[in-house]
């Protein structure tokens, strides 16, 4: 059904429950203050709500009013109404109760709220323009304002589509339009953050050569699956190569996939928003590898995670070998945690520090992970079983059954860094043998990726040389001591 032209609506006297009585001002929004980890059961829009609630932005009343109005639509529709769209416990509801329990009245109330949000956006649009940021380059500043205009236009279009869907009483279309509006609002909110909210570690061997993402980036890739009609491989030959040349098996497999993609059928596209606000190093590593083309043509494999075998994406030998260090790039465990007293959200790094926080009760200051694995579409890094500081390139996305079984045991042990915002149904059917292709990063996200300074690599190389010389010197000293002891014995 086409979107109704708002300006063409008949101007006739209307009862209180019709859209023409919608006020120009939204209900006052409560300030954003997370009081608990963002943990929700299945929700088709929970990823979008997480992207909104975890923005380091609490001073814009306009933004918060729009956010709460869009999320509060869930509670206004009649049963059966979006039963899979509950509001997370961290997003307090401020929507006025419906004046009637009848389905028709609830639909009209939801439509009226959406129309009010549209008028409110038009009236206060100028207050959603990003503030100037001296830390951004000229190119990043231009991209920022262009993206802001695009996001605001997308938000307005989504609100109009939402009004049309509510007017036609379509649950599916209403949910889709609401999701797009929330995503657009999250983009607007991200651009309104004046500065990155905290300092990311950059000193020490484990940090100085790692890229970091100072914001958010969208990474999109295509999933393909071997076609049943594709050429048959020789199992005996495959086994021989695997046994005789195990170190070449993965390389040969990846090269073969790259040459035979025409024999793979299209499954679909998946878009992930990598969130540098909650995991700047882990998200930065993911975006960096996507930009380098590391993930292209890599087959999906299965790996053991806790007690379950999961589809693992991005698996290749020991991971990504950093050309500057000539060794696999390894990431310290990075988990954003919330302070139970100040409500401040910051990442905690490394196995020991995260274990200490996990063991301490919140009553005595123990910081809990701000997100957990019950959130559908959550993307996290995979690491070797006995080395939580050994993640390199592999990542995973839980499906519904896996979330139910593993969400409690994974929190605090694996690093979440992003959310699936498009193609969620595809991620729920991934299987071993599927292939990742055509990986691309959006322009704004690429501008927010910060590579280590060249001096860091020089310092790293110099220190390695010094360590090598120190090792040689220590060996010489030990040899001299042994020779002196032998000489002493012969006297």
UniProtKB/TrEMBL annotation:
<protein>
    <recommendedName>
        <fullName>peptidylprolyl isomerase</fullName>
        <ecNumber>5.2.1.8</ecNumber>
    </recommendedName>
</protein>
<dbReference type="InterPro" id="IPR002130">
    <property type="entry name" value="Cyclophilin-type_PPIase_dom"/>
</dbReference>
<feature type="region of interest" description="Disordered">
    <location>
        <begin position="1"/>
        <end position="24"/>
    </location>
</feature>
<dbReference type="Pfam" id="PF00160">
    <property type="entry name" value="Pro_isomerase"/>
</dbReference>
<feature type="domain" description="PPIase cyclophilin-type">
    <location>
        <begin position="267"/>
        <end position="432"/>
    </location>
</feature>
<feature type="compositionally biased region" description="Pro residues">
    <location>
        <begin position="77"/>
        <end position="95"/>
    </location>
</feature>
<keyword id="KW-0697">Rotamase</keyword>
<feature type="region of interest" description="Disordered">
    <location>
        <begin position="74"/>
        <end position="104"/>
    </location>
</feature>
<dbReference type="InterPro" id="IPR044665">
    <property type="entry name" value="E_coli_cyclophilin_A-like"/>
</dbReference>
<dbReference type="InterPro" id="IPR029000">
    <property type="entry name" value="Cyclophilin-like_dom_sf"/>
</dbReference>
<keyword id="KW-0413">Isomerase</keyword>
């Amino acid at each position: 059904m086409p979107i109704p032209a708002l300006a063409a609506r008949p101007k006739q006297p209307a009862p209180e429950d019709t859209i023409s009585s919608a006020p120009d001002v939204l209900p006052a929004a409560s300030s954003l203050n997370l009081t608990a980890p963002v943990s929700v059961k299945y929700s088709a829009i929970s990823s979008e709500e997480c992207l909104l609630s975890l923005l380091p932005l609490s001073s814009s009343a306009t933004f918060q009013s729009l956010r709460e109005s869009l999320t509060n639509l869930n509670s206004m529709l009649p049963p059966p109404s979006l039963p899979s769209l509950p509001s997370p416990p961290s997003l307090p509801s401020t929507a006025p109760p419906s004046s009637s329990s009848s389905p028709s009245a609830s639909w009209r109330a939801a439509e009226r709220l959406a129309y009010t949000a549209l008028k409110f956006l038009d009236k206060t649009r100028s207050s959603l323009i990003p503030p100037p940021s001296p830390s951004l380059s000229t190119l990043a500043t231009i991209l920022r304002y262009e993206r802001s205009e695009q996001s605001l236009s997308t938000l307005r279009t989504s609100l109009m589509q939402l009004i049309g869907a509510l007017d036609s009483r379509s649950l599916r279309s209403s949910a889709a339009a609401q999701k797009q509006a929330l995503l657009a609002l999250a983009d607007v909110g991200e651009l309104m953050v004046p500065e990155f909210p905290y300092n990311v570690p950059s000193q020490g061997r484990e940090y100085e050569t790692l890229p970091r993402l100072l914001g958010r980036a969208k990474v999109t890739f295509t999933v393909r699956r071997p076609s049943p009609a594709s050429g048959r491989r020789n199992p005996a030959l495959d086994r021989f190569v695997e046994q005789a040349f195990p170190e070449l098996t993965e390389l040969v497999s990846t090269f073969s996939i790259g040459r035979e993609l025409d024999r793979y059928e299209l499954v679909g596209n998946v878009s992930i928003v990598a969130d540098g606000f909650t995991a700047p190093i882990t998200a930065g590593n993911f975006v960096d590898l996507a930009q380098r083309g590391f993930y292209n043509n890599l087959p999906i494999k299965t790996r053991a995670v806790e007690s379950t075998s999961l589809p693992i994406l991005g698996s290749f030998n020991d991971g990504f070998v950093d050309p500057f260090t000539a060794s696999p790039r390894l990431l310290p465990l990075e988990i954003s945690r919330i302070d139970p007293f100040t409500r401040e959200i910051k990442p905690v790094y490394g196995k020991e520090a995260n274990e200490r926080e996990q063991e301490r009760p919140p009553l005595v200051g123990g910081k809990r992970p701000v997100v957990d694995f019950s959130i559908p579409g959550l993307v996290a890094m995979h690491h070797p079983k006995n080395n939580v500081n050994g993640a390199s390139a592999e990542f995973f996305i839980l499906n519904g059954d896996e979330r139910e079984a593993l969400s409690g045991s994974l929190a605090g042990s694996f690093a979440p860094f992003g959310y699936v915002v498009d193609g969620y149904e595809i991620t729920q059917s991934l299987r071993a043998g599927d292939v990742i292709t055509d990986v691309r990063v959006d322009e704004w996200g690429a501008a927010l990726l910060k590579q280590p300074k060249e001096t860091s690599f020089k310092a790293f190389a110099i220190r390695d040389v010094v360590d090598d010389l120190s090792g040689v010197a220590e060996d010489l000293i030990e040899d001299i001591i042994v020779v002196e002891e032998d000489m002493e014995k012969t006297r």
